[in-house]
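Form P-L/3: holo structure prediction, ligand S-adenosylmethionine.
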Amino acid sequence: MNRLETIKSMVTKCHTVADIGTDHGYVAEMLLNDNIAEKIIATDLNKGPLNRAIEYLTSKNLSDKCDFRLGSGLTVLEKNEADAIIIAGMGGDLISDILHTSKNIAITTKQLIIQPMTAIDKLRKYLYNNGYKIIDESIVKEFHHYYFIMNIEPGYEVIEDEIYYEISKHLILKKDPIMYKYIDKIIDTNNKIIQSLEKSDNLKYKIKINDLINKNNKIMEILKYEA
Ligand SMILES: C[S@@+](CC[C@H](N)C(=O)[O-])C[C@H]1O[C@@H](n2cnc3c(N)ncnc32)[C@H](O)[C@@H]1O
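OUTPUT (holo model):
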């Protein structure tokens, strides 16, 4: 499955889905065509992308099932208006800002699906420390890029180690083969950085080298532990 199909597969059939930052409107199209949603609230901060979604969904004869809204994050939604909310294709910092700004909306929806493009570890840290639980997670590789799609809900979960901000506990427990490839890439990248920093005598780099060695050891340790 590709990124958009995986996002779609995480949504349980319901009445209204809000697609935040809809842009092209492809997620809305997939959810309506597969009868996963009866209605989509398609939103975007910017007029250009919102007009793109309006044009595209109109061309697919789906616009009568869509409510298009211009505005930031979840501020365009009322409490309990959407059964599911999707925030996909944005930076991890922006997603945590959106969740933080409208926590009253976020925690009252039945399903919350997020897919960050960057700062994945910072976003997981935000979730674990701000009253959200990750209840499921998928990884997808498209054109050498790894995407993480998370199903989250309000709640608290204690994680045993901060390494789980960077390395998804769910994906390790699932023994997802793509996750193993992702971990190989992380370890390989860390080793390359270590090798290049080892050429310098700078104390600052020695600390960084130690951090990276410890990180790689920790990753190997949790892989053995969860095996
Ligand atoms: C890269 S597109 C992602 C499109 C689609 N959601 C996907 O996953 O393929 C990001 C979209 O988010 C919109 N956006 C950025 N900040 C936003 C915010 N605070 N609230 C709503 N939309 C936002 C942008 O205008 C852009 O259309």
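COMMENT: The first strand starts at residue 14 and ends at 20.
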